[in-house]
Automatic annotation (TrEMBL):
It is found in: Nucleus. It comes from Hypsizygus marmoreus. Residues 12-71 form the DNA replication complex GINS protein PSF2 N-terminal domain. GO terms for cellular component: GINS complex. This is DNA replication complex GINS protein PSF2.
Length: 189
């Protein structure tokens, strides 16, 4: 959702991608490596052709050096995304997706699209899914209620996009509710 510059005070998409890079992903290493300790934890050992779970940041580094293949998460495939898109279009609520699906899918499609099956179709489905979810977000914001907020299954990027608008709208609605109502007679006195 494109917001005016004045409302963009949230975390930027690249910052969200950085945060999501801590998520673990499976790889098939092409090199051997002993267990290695990092600030975020110890990972390994890597022994081809056995799969290993490592953070996305490490997988991207190894992938860029052609030292591993990244195994796509179970949700990053055409069948799953098509099912979610169908649900998104058919049901009033948001379909359940991984919290950081937007950031993870972007990073993996940018760096490891050769490890994904049918990346162009996945990109297309993700775009359609995003547009359908944005339309629901816009409709939901039209019916904003200051006393109740219930937006289950929103992902981090979607929350980040609507947060600035939502915070300002809730502040205005709270002010309107707190202002004493003036009676018609006192308005003319």
């Amino acid at each position: 959702m494109a917001l005016p510059e004045s409302l963009r005070v949230s975390i930027t998409p690249p910052e969200l991608e950085l945060i999501s890079s801590q998520q673990l992903v499976e790889i098939i290493p092409l090199i051997s490596m002993e267990r290695t300790a990092f600030i975020s934890g110890a990972y390994g050992p890597l022994r081809p052709p056995n799969k290993a779970k490592i953070p996305i940041w490490m997988a991207l580094n190894l992938k860029s050096k052609k030292k591993c293949h990244i195994v796509a998460p179970s949700w990053l495939n055409v069948d799953y995304l098509q099912d979610r898109l169908n649900r998104e279009l058919a049901e009033p609520g948001f379909s359940e997706l991984p919290f950081r699906f937007t950031e993870i899918s972007k990073v993996l499609l940018d760096v490891a699209s050769d490890d994904l099956e049918n990346p162009d179709k996945i990109r297309s489905l993700l775009k359609d899914l995003r547009e359908a979810r944005q339309a629901k977000s816009r409709e939901g914001l039209k019916e904003l209620d200051h006393s109740d907020l219930n937006l289950p299954n929103l992902c981090s990027m979607e929350i980040n996009e609507i947060r600035p608008f939502f915070v300002q709208a809730m502040a205005l609605m709270t002010q309107l509710v707190r202002q004493p109502a003036t009676s018609p007679q006192s308005a003319f006195e």
